[in-house]
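Let us begin with a simple case.
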Amino acid sequence: MADMSIRQATELLREAGIPVTLQRVEIARSMLSAPVHLSADQVFSRVRESVPATSRATVYNTLKLFREKNLVRELIVDPERVVYDSNTAPHYHLYDAASGRLVDVSADELKVVGMPALPPGMELEEVDVIIRVRSRA
């Protein structure tokens, strides 16, 4: 299923302070072996190939935990599509609305100039930029 070894995934989870379970290891292998943009259902399908007893709730809860530990980013591509991005370095996204394909755009390729004044007591968590495109035809 994934290029990341079980040992590597286990070590990564331990370093992040995440208790290790077989399901979490397989979710980590699915998400963190290479840069990917996967929905929770796609992760669920991948993990079920090697650990059939994995529940959908386990996948959703683990992805939430991975997000809290900054192992993945949650991207709300549109109101009906949420994907998890294994690339947590600063970058943006190009989204093909027709195909649903999401591609990373290097932070060097797009400049966001300035930030709005934040309300009192608030701090910036992150900036998500999704450039939506579609074929001219």
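The second case is a distinct protein. As before, the sequence precedes its structure tokens.
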Amino acid sequence: MESIESVVETCCRELLGVMRREDPFDLQGRLVEDYGLSSLQLVTLVTTVCEETGLPLTALTERDIARMKTAGDIAAIVQGALQAVKPS
């Protein structure tokens, strides 16, 4: 499976629409302040990442969503949630 960071980066690039693959992408760049994403785009991004990784959106809490300021935050939170819902 593709890494969570790669999934998040790919989803961000698709959402931004103007970044070429060879353009640098900073996982620690702030999605609103640095990349200019709107609230709706953030919801779309998180929803798409959940779909791509197989994580039920309901596995994320309000607190999780509030902490998602960077693509790296999304990757870390989704990774943690995937581990929590993964059957033992």
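Residues 53 and 64 are 16 Å apart (CA to CA). The mean pLDDT is 90.
Keep these points in mind for the review questions at the end of the chapter.
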